[in-house]
Write the structure tokens for this entry.
Amino acid sequence: MARNKFDIDETLESPFDIRHLKRSLVYCGKYKGKIFFSLTLSALSVIAGLFGPMITQYVLDVSIPAGNVAEVLIMSGLFLLTIIVSVLLSVSRSRIMTKVGQDIVYDIRKDLFEHLQRLSFEYYDSRPHGKILTRVINYINSISDLMTNGLINFILEIFNLIFITIFMFFVSWRIALVILCGLPIFLGIMLIIKNKQRRAWQQVSNKSSNMNAYIHESIVGTKVTQLFTREEENAEIFDRLQNNYRKSWMRAVIFSNMVWPTVDDISIVVRGAIYITGLLVFGTGVVSLGNIVAMCSYASRFWQPLLNLSNLMNTFINAVAYLERIFETMDEPIAVDDAPDAKEMPDIKGEVSFKNVTFKYDTGPIVLENLSFTAKPGESIALVGPTGAGKTTIVNLISRFYNLTGGEVDIDGVDISSVTLHSLRSQMGIMLQDSFIFSGTIMDNIKYGRLDATDEEAAAAAKVVGVDEFIQTLPDGYNTVVNERGAGLSQGQKQLIAFARTILADPKILVLDEATSSIDAKTERYLQRGIDHLLKGRTSFIIAHRLSTIRNCDRIMYISNKGITESGTHEELLAKKGDYYHLYNSQAI
Amino acid sequence: MFLFRWLWTNMEGYKARYVLAMCLSVVCQVMYLVTPMMSQQIVDTFIMPSDAAYIIKTQSALLWQMVWIMIGFTFLRTVIQYSTNMLYEVTSQALIYRVRKKMYENINKQDATFYDRFRTGDIMTRMTGDIDMVRHSVAWIIKTVIESLTLFVASIIYFFSMDWLTAICLIALTPVIFGVSFFFKKKVRPMYVTLREKLSLMNTAAEENISGNRVVKAFAREDYEIGKFDEKSVDYSKANKRAALTWLDFFPIIEITAQALSVIQLLLGGIFAISGRITVGEFTAFAGLIWTLANPMRNIGTIINDFQRFTASANKIIEVYYGRSKIADREDAIDLPERIKGSIEFQNVDFSYGDIQVLHDINLKIEPGETVAIMGPTGSGKTTLVELIARIYDVNGGKVTVDGNDVRMLKLKQLRGSIGMATQDVLLYSDTIDGNIAFGNTSMSEEEVVRCAEYADADGFIRKLSEGYETIVGERGVGLSGGQKQRIALARALAVKPAILVLDDTTSAVDLETETHIQESLRNLDFPCTKIIIAQRISSAKDADKIVILQNGTIADVGTHEELIQREGYYREVYELQH
């Protein structure tokens, strides 16, 4: 059962550490060469930019006093040249890094999506889908900025900082020390802000996830909302979620907006300190006046990279709140996974046996206990019994949608947990209770069962289930585009299309879980003939409440009390006058 | 301009604050320009003069004073700057709050035509990424515009006051930037529209994949899905790169032009200084302040770039923001003073879904308190028929009346509030079972919830769950069996004590014993109620006062069980099939 709903924050298991940074660096590793090249370009661009002030200085000191107009012209030309070189270098760097950044974001998204595909039902069942969606789309988009420019700028600024510090010491080590005094104050304040910020941005990511989950559910459930005239209550709930989000955002920006002014303030205090110490404390004999002026300008060039770094830190802390979630999802253990030495499932003949199977969902009560039975190849088995007795669970276990709590399920004598999921599931045809239809054409939906099927084969499958006639009446026939979840089709039509999809897969083992519940009796009867034909040579498991559907099955198993209470053919069970007999009679009028 | 007006209206209640923020931005920018002058003054007073050493000794108090003023002034500026930023944050948050609220309320009101047009993932994009773009514009783009403008104006004034010729030559480059920006704008706009489109498609693909995860696994189609998503992801990534690279095509021109201001200054300043038009001091001052012109020019590109993104996003938002549902209360809607009694009449009703005619010339009268069963082949229009009562759709011809009033004349809240519908595709919220049952009537007591569950024969299995009524069910009720979901949906429908109860194939997945129990309790409800039951099984329909057979969108037959089994037709065929 679900552990999380839209208004519950997801707790984060892992504490903050440098791992997230390291891990994102792994993604950068693939583009090492390009990143290094960009870095070189940036450095060259910075160096080219350094000529500008030197040229100005030269004109001021030499050309103007000499009254040399020609030299002013040449110098201006040179200046323009350095600008062009510097800009072109930095643009080349940006071109490369834009691509690299986008590629990294793409890689992360791909990894996340692929991991999500391997997670079992349990993962999807235990949290709102909107929250998963938010991670794949919004969270990953939020980190793209960091990936595109963050790393390079970080390295550049660090170099800048080191460079300027050395320079300062070279000019006047005393004043340099004064300037550096500002550093501990800066770091102390940053440390405090950082801690607050981290928590604050985590809250923002939580609250936006909650809000998005609710938006998602509301979009999917609009019809229900309208039918129950819940618009106002929903709006109130949404208001609450939005307010929480807004509050968390405001709390986060209280700190992040503080960074810039703090640096500004510290830098001006440092400048004041330079004047005071330079002029009053050290005295002009120790520090030359020219040095003081120079140091003032170096001081501002010392704080600029620090300011940029703290802004980067802002971006980074913000991104980490999202990265944590992304990596957490990537680390979500795959509950049902291929065994390390998993083999391909050989072509299935169809013998299915349960050996002392015990099963419970996560922390829930035991659903099945010590269940054992064997289905012979080609046998059709019906599962009947009260709702919630575990019929669906049994068929889900055959496809290994969940791991067993105890016991073993074998197909053709092979333990299914020892073969690859893909080789197992691709030989099974499962018709689920919820006949999910994808947006796309009806043809696409049927071919989902077998991607390489021809149009004719797909149409043949539709004929078997009796939906061909209906599809033909549509204006675009098989190419009619159906909307999300098959909006515009009746529930029965959706089931029939889902049925055709299953049949097209030509499975060795067929599972029909209430496959015909929404289909009218006449169509069902027509379908039945198709199914009977289809069942030949395949092992099948059928769950149905309409006993007329299952009367002809080779064996009927009555599921209740965590196991099989009765088993036999229709006639045998009737003769037994037990649960099945009782059930059957209640259906008779 | 429409977009700005739209933003402005949505700033309701925060307009004053926003204007204040903009004014403070101007103040900050000016203060920002003043600080270097203060430090210049210290240099001029204490360092530059030839008798500096003497001045320092005699005027140390003045030095202290000037340093304190400089620091105090900067502190004041940063405080104002911080407050300004917070004001921008507050107003932009208030704005998106309002917009998102309006969008949310709007999507809740929309009819099927809207959902045919917009996919879930698409609406999600509009309500998340696009909204964030709007926030960014209001909080940052507009702020940048104002700051740049202030700086630009201030520096033009300054340069003109110093030397008009230099000023004109410097400004001469501005048209170049504007021209380039104009071309850039034309080129990049469609790219951002595309980028937006690709994001939406990627979002939609992910959304469908997550929602359909069971089918994906059942068919072992993970690799196929990965391929499908990958395509969208690549497209998005490409669109992103294309837009960014286009910006980088123009960026060098803008950047070089902005930096070329320094070259012009050097050239003209140099010549003018030699000719004696300006002093060397002025030359230095010009060189020191050239950035005040260059930065705003440089920002134009970024502003235009961001503004194009904003426009692309805002247009998407506005589609949802202003989307009007055709199914809404009429101005002259009537308010029925008392509880609806529950008589329903279809008069010559026609209905088409797109090009496909679903119902044709339906005439049917249902008395208050009656139980009516509707049967018919798949796709014959049963669900549509009952949905017309609740005005999920509006008829194309004829009319549907409830208690003698055309449903289009009733207020939706009253109409739908008196109908309890258990839909076929059971959609539960990721909430507790208790919350799901009380969905239509949040104020109901726990006892009432339990009683509704008992009516629906759901109490037993709910109590067996590890946390009983407090168990959280997954989205769409995953984790529950089909029959369990249906029973919760039934309890939910009963919880509103509806005058009209509609069960759309609600018992198809429950076993017959349970169905019998449910039928029994439906007969003994403690409130008057007209019941409409759509069913496939004879057992579900046979006790109804009236059984309606719907075939190909028309009523083929009406009668009681006894009558219908007497005559040829769908009902008898089904009856024979099931026995």
